[in-house]
Predict the 3D structure of the following.
Amino acid sequence: MDDALVRAGRALRLAVLIALALLFLIPFYLLLRNGLSTERDITSPEWTFFPHELRWDNVHELFADTSVPFARSLLNSALIAVATTLGTLLLASLAGYGLARIPYRHADKVFYGILGTLLIPAAVTFVPSFVLVSSLGWISTLRGLIVPTLFSAFACFVFRQYFLGFPTELEDAAQVDGLGYWRTYWLIVVPNARPVFAAVGTIVFLGAWNSFLWPLVIGQDQSAWTVQVALSSFTTAQVIRLHELFVAAAVSILPLLVVFLVFQRWIVTGVERSGID
Amino acid sequence: MKHRSALWFWVFVGPFAAGLALFTYVPLLWSVGLSLFDAHNTVTPTHFVGLDNYTAMLRDDAFRDSLKTFLVFTAFIVPTTYVVSLTLALMVNRVRRARAFFRSVFFLPAACSYVVAALVWKMSIFSGVRFGLANTVLGWFGADSVAWLATPDPPWYWLVIITVRLWLQAGFYMILFLAGLQRIDPALYEAAAVDGARPGWTVLRHITLPQLRATSVAVVLLLVVNAFQAFDEFYNLLSDARGYPPYARPPLVYLYYTALGQGQNLGLGSAGAVILALVIAVVTAAQARWLKLGRTDADG
């Protein structure tokens, strides 16, 4: 084929990709633009791409506004996301290792029992789970928001698959040295399995921070709002202060964008490994 | 020794298995129980009503409408996401410059929550007033402003709902397709070139798509299950201080207002949860069978 034609095709593809990339970035830009604009620049009928003035005061105003519990909701989200991530990693990795490595007569049955819960989408069980959590008296508590979400069959499955493909030589050597399962796990397996911990951990953290339905159902009092619930209630409120709403949304995705960009490599491996989010 | 290893098995697996059973199987069974009772505002009802909740649910027009909403939503979101994410993957896979950059940009929305994305869509891009971005662009072409979300007639709200999810999830599925593309043996393309196949449609149809079959099956299954669970963007785009409008209620939104709204009819809500769990199980199983009925020799 003609060389010039090939080069033209390549240039065209690059141009289309750049256009699409800009399109994908627009929502992020709008968040930032409106978050740092005056109310007038947001609602002006003469809408301009760049605001007339940047108003960093919006951030200050957001945290000074005592009528919205925004700082508290950020704290709640951070506590929930960190606790959920650590708890899920601990429980699911132990279970995944046990299923992959410790011989037991009924291991298959236990595994299928765990796998079976993947067939029931978590969102469909929110009414039953609400019933359980409310009878435990855990409505509007951090316990109620965290504990029921700690048992992720997906995370357990990913760990099991990973440990099944893990070379056995190291563990065999540990057994010869007289280390039991417990110490082998902590001293040999965990330090050598960092990639899978990073992958699962990042995905769980993103999921916990962004989750909405469960916190909406359980976190009914303002004191138990997560940042997503707080944002949602501002959006559906009677009076909406747009600049405050947008700056709040921008602040809420900032920690996530940092986590995402730093750990992106791990998320990609995690997604490829599982195909489940 | 055998006894010892059984003990250790439960030390490792026990806490997780017990928690999963407590927070998944117990609520489900409890729910099946509740669905047979008249349970308003209570989780320990005494008035047994048999299958009344189920018949009431299935007769309820709003419930049937919610299943229709799911079907319409799925009919739009599954093909569009499939095509967009596959196209992105093919383009990113072949670009020579800045591949990592493009991959990051398209994947970045996966870090954004549905709540935040819905907020940008509702308050900025598709706000029904003239200063909204979409209406500004329409204005450049001399078109009238559209009240995107405020009216069901014409149903422009579907465009808003579809594009927000498309933006959020296309990059995620692009990553899955990219992984699938990396696994294709380059020798297949070389052989095709020797046979005189020109790059483009022929190669895509006869090599790339068949080789991506396993990935495609996984992507479609995930897309449908996720569409069935749609709640966040519907709730945040359509509800306001006056509540949720009577149209465009997908199953979970319907269930949310039935079980947890005024009256907290947990018996009826539980019956709905059981029905939906059955529906999604049947849909998933049927899809898995149907998708496997085709050619399977190319499966990875």
